[in-house]
TrEMBL record:
Coiled-coil spans in chain: none
Segments forming domain NADPH-dependent reductive aminase-like C-terminal: 165-289
Pfam families: NAD_binding_2 (PF03446), RedAm-like_C (PF21761)
Chain ranges of the 6-phosphogluconate dehydrogenase NADP-binding domain: 10-157
Organism: Nocardia rhizosphaerihabitans
Keywords associated with the record: Oxidoreductase
Top-rank lineage group of the source organism: Bacteria
Family under the similarity heading: Belongs to the HIBADH-related family.
Protein name per Swiss-Prot or TrEMBL: 6-phosphogluconate dehydrogenase
């Protein structure tokens, strides 16, 4: 295969919203794209934009040296690639699907056992908007495999290569989603509180954005604390319990479900109880981390 075809053509398997965004990004960058998906309608839509159709997984893998997977989870990878395992020999598989680090490591081993190279990726994007300035992709796996294919994958989003551990991209990806998911729930509760109090969510949002500007400061402060056992002060922990109760009261007074705040309060209470039992302050970080 010529150097030009190596660097300017790719197959994309899986055409959900993220897979479609990837196809569009490749095409916009002048990369030739072959697509496969279970649903023919999604393939048709990408073909109309200029992609090439593959009628089977084997055909998609054979079309190019590199294939990008955008699937729901790693179990789907086995289901898809298992349709043509003989076609994997000599190929490069970049799996940008979400799953646990251990499942990524197992998936990498499965692909390599069938003669292909492997990269794991975690797509940190604003929804399926991979062109958003805040979007980027974690990659992990052998450095030489990443280096050889980085230019081809560059149209998708800025790249952050983390290391050789196949699971590392998913460690960082899932850690960031651990922060993001509670934020989504908290924002729903907060805006429900505003609305049920008879006020305008739109009036509230600028203040929420303004307050979020302090988050980097807190992250930096707490990251230092957590590298040293976590932030813990008994009086402050008790204050957090009381503060959580105020949020619960404000929510429930207007009929908003405060289950998320009740859960938060439980962690602060556990830290207070552990601190009192130990005779020294015990942080929520210590409680979550557990013992090595």
């Amino acid at each position: 295969m010529s150097e030009q075809s190596k660097t300017r053509s790719v197959s994309v398997l899986g055409l959900g919203p993220m897979g479609q965004a990837m196809v569009k990004a490749f095409l916009a960058a002048g990369v030739e794209v072959t697509v496969w998906n279970r649903s023919a309608a999604k393939v048709d839509a990408m073909v109309e934009l200029g992609a090439k159709r593959a009628d089977s997984v084997a055909e998609a893998l054979a079309a190019n040296e590199v294939s990008v997977l955008s699937l729901t989870h790693y179990a789907a990878m086995y289901d898809v690639l298992g349709q043509a395992p003989e076609a994997l020999a000599g190929k490069v598989i970049a799996n940008l699907s979400s799953d646990s680090p251990e499942k990524a490591r197992a998936g990498a081993a499965w692909v390599r056992e069938r003669g292909a190279q492997f990269l794991s990726g975690g797509v940190m994007s604003a929804g399926d908007n991979i062109e958003h300035p805040a979007s980027y992709i974690f990659y992990s796996g052998p450095k030489e495999v990443f280096d050889a294919n980085a230019e081809l994958l560059r149209p998708l989003s800025p790249q952050e290569y983390l290391g050789a551990d196949d699971g590392l991209a998913q460690v960082f990806y899932q850690a960031l989603l651990t922060v993001f998911h509670p934020w989504l729930l908290a924002f729903d509760q907060a805006t429900a509180m505003i609305a049920k109090s008879g006020h305008d969510i739109a009036q509230f949002v600028p203040f929420a954005v303004r307050s979020s500007e302090a988050y980097p400061y807190f992250m930096e402060q707490f990251s230092v604390a957590n590298q040293n056992g976590g932030w813990a002060d008994l009086a402050s922990l008790k204050m957090m319990v009381a503060g959580a109760q105020h949020i619960i009261d404000a929510s429930e007074e207007v009929g908003v479900d405060a289950g998320f705040s009740h859960l938060s309060q439980q962690y602060w209470r556990k830290a207070v109880e552990a601190s009192e039992a130990a005779g020294k302050a015990v942080s929520t970080y210590e409680l979550m981390r557990g013992t090595d």
